[in-house]
Amino acid sequence: GAVVSQHPSRVICKSGTSVKIECRSLDFQATTMFWYRQFPKQSLMLMATSNEGSKATYEQGVEKDKFLINHASLTLSTLTVTSAHPEDSSFYICSAGLPGPRNTIYFGEGSWLTVV
Amino acid sequence: ILNVEQSPQSLHVQEGDSTNFTCSFPSSNFYALHWYRWETAKSPEALFVMTLNGDEKKKGRISATLNTKEGYSYLYIKGSQPEDSATYLCALNRDDKIIFGKGTRLHILP
C-alpha cells in the first residue's frame, strides 16, 4: 500500500484563486518532504524542501510567496499555489524520506493542477 | 548546472525481447544513483539505489549496473512483459538533493 498520500489528484481552479495540495506520510514520520513540479516532457524539478517546524528551503527561481509550503506536523506538508495563473498549470508531486544510499524515497501519487 | 541525461527518451520493445537504456551523470562528487519505475497514475516506485562503482543490482528480470568513474548506469530488462510498460527514471543523489533525468518511456508491444 501507499506510504505517501497526496491529495487532490486533480484540481481545476480559476486564475487568481489559491489551491492547496496535501502530502501525507502514512507509515512513518517525515521531518523532511520534497515538492517537485513537472512540465510536459521535462524532468521532475525540485521546487522546495519542506522541513517540519521550520521554514521551507526553496530552489533558485521558485517564488516562496507564490508557492507557500507548510510542514506543521511530522506527517503532513502542504503546498499552496497562491494567485494561480495558467502558467502554473503543471504536475506537482511530493516525496518523503531523506536521500541517502540506504534510504528509500517514497513518492505521493502526484497532483495535476489546471488553472483556467 | 547538474544534468542527468537518460536515453533513449522513448523505446518500443516486442514482448519477450530484452532491452536496456542509459542514465548519464557528472561523475564528480558522486553519492548515490536511484532508479525508479513510474506507471501512469501511480507513485514512482523505487527499484534500486546504487552507490559503488561496479555495483550490479538485480530484482527479478530487471538489473542495473553502475560506473561512477565514467558517469553512467544501465538498466536492463530481460524478457520484457506487458507489465514492464512504464517510465523509468534515474536520479542522482548529491548534496542531500535528488536530481532527476527526464526518464525513458518504455512501451512493450504484444
Structural notes for this entry:
The complex is a heterodimer of chains A (116) and B (110). With 116 residues, chain A is mainly beta. Helices cover 0% and strands 50% of the residues of chain A. Chain A has strands at 4-7, 10-13, 19-25, 32-38, 45-51, 57-58, 67-73, 76-81, 90-96, 106-107, 111-115. In chain A, a hairpin with a 5-residue loop joins strand 5 and strand 6. Chain B is an all-beta fold and 110 residues long. Chain B is built from no helices and 11 strands. Chain B has strands at residues 5-7, 10-14, 19-24, 32-38, 45-50, 56-59, 62-67, 72-77, 86-94, 97-100, 104-109. In chain B, a hairpin with a 4-residue loop joins strand 7 (62-67) and strand 8. Chains A and B meet through strand 5 and strand 10 of A and strand 4 and strand 10 of B.
How would you briefly describe this protein structure?
The complex is a heterodimer of chains A (116) and B (110). With 116 residues, chain A is an all-beta fold.
| Most extensive protein-chain contact, per-chain counts | A-B, 27 and 22 residues
Query: What portion of residues of chain A belong to β-strands?
Result: over 45%
Sheet bearing the most strands of chain A, described? 7 strands, mixed
* SS content category of chain B: mainly beta
Supply Rg of chain B.
13 Å
> How many angstroms does the end-to-end distance of chain B come to?
40 Å
Radius of gyration of chain A: 13 Å
Number of helices of chain B: 0
Looking at this protein, list some descriptive labels:
heterodimer, A: 116 residues, mainly beta, seven-stranded mixed β-sheet, four-stranded antiparallel β-sheet, B: 110 residues, six-stranded mixed β-sheet, five-stranded antiparallel β-sheet, 11 strands, 56% strand
Note the topology.
The complex is a heterodimer of chains A (116) and B (110).
Chain A lengths: L3 E4 L2 E4 L5 E7 L6 E7 L6 E7 L5 E2 L8 E7 L2 E6 L8 E7 L9 E2 L3 E5 L1
Parallel strand pairs in A: 2-11
Antiparallel strand pairs in A: 1-3, 3-8, 4-5, 4-9, 5-6, 7-8, 9-10, 9-11
Chain B lengths: L4 E3 L2 E5 L4 E6 L7 E7 L6 E6 L5 E4 L2 E6 L4 E6 L8 E9 L2 E4 L3 E6 L1
Parallel strand pairs in B: 2-11
Antiparallel strand pairs in B: 1-3, 3-8, 4-5, 4-9, 6-7, 7-8, 9-10, 9-11
